[in-house]
Design brief:
Elements: E1 20-22, E2 29-31, E3 45-48, E4 51-54, E5 63-68, E6 72-77, E7 82-87, E8 102-108, E9 120-123, E10 127-132, E11 135-140, E12 155-160, E13 170-174, E14 178-182, E15 187-193, E16 204-211
Antiparallel strand pairs: 1-2, 3-4, 5-6, 6-7, 7-8, 9-10, 10-11, 11-12, 13-14, 14-15, 15-16
Length: 216
């Protein structure tokens, strides 16, 4: 589905990496580390999924945060822009899944008007979240309220999480159909909680953040 950042049609059938070849004598893969074919992007060096990758291209920018989800990958580059690639079944890449069901090329995420910087990212199962400068955003699947914007509407565009008054979230994390974030001395969760994952003492779902119970 493009999670490696490589066109699946170009992956060798010998199970070697994108830029490696099979040594006929040793039977081992040899060559340089895998390169992301990022076309007009230059993300610098990142570590993602257990390997180091060097982006190539003309756009100047150093990738400094990477998040690996169930079926997609995100990266923040210098300046706070976010790029995503991989599966796009529910719009988690920020584009219409009817037009782009998956992508090995990074897709830039369009922030809501007035928001131009994010520095923390997380991708779960069909949805993704980010925060920075006092704002928390989520996009993608929302069947059980995992976007936290007081609706159950799936959104390919980032929506602002309905953060409670006098709170500011950071270190947001997208899980399997639920999300959590750190508030002012507290933890808040929303989305699917039928197995207790919201930490509110109930088996429930929530389309807005709820403060979790803290141990006595």
């Amino acid at each position: 589905m493009g999670q490696t950042g490589i066109d699946p049609a170009t992956i060798p059938v010998n199970n070697c990496n994108y830029s490696e070849t099979l040594d006929a004598f040793t039977g081992k893969c040899v060559g340089s580390p895998t390169l992301f074919p990022l076309n007009n992007y230059s993300f610098g060096k990142i570590s993602c999924g257990g390997g180091d990758f060097d982006g190539t291209g003309g756009r100047v920018g150093m990738g400094y945060t990477c998040a690996v989800g169930a079926d997609s990958i995100m990266e923040v580059i210098a300046g706070g822009n976010i790029y995503c690639w991989g599966a796009n079944t529910m719009g988690q890449l920020g584009v219409d899944p009817g037009l782009v069901p998956w992508s090995y090329e990074p897709q830039i995420i369009d922030f809501p008007y007035g928001i131009d910087f994010m520095d923390k990212i997380s991708t779960g199962f069909g949805h993704a979240c980010a925060d920075g400068l006092g704002f928390s955003l989520c996009w993608g699947a929302n069947m059980v309220g995992q976007l936290g914007n007081n609706t159950y509407d799936t959104s390919i565009s980032p929506v602002i999480v309905d953060v409670p008054a006098y709170q500011s979230f950071n270190n947001i994390s997208a899980g399997y159909m639920h999300s959590c974030a750190i508030g002012a001395g507290s933890l808040w969760c929303w989305g699917l909680g039928q197995q207790g994952q919201l930490g509110v003492g109930l088996r429930t779902i929530s389309k807005i953040p709820y403060r979790t119970y803290s141990p006595e």
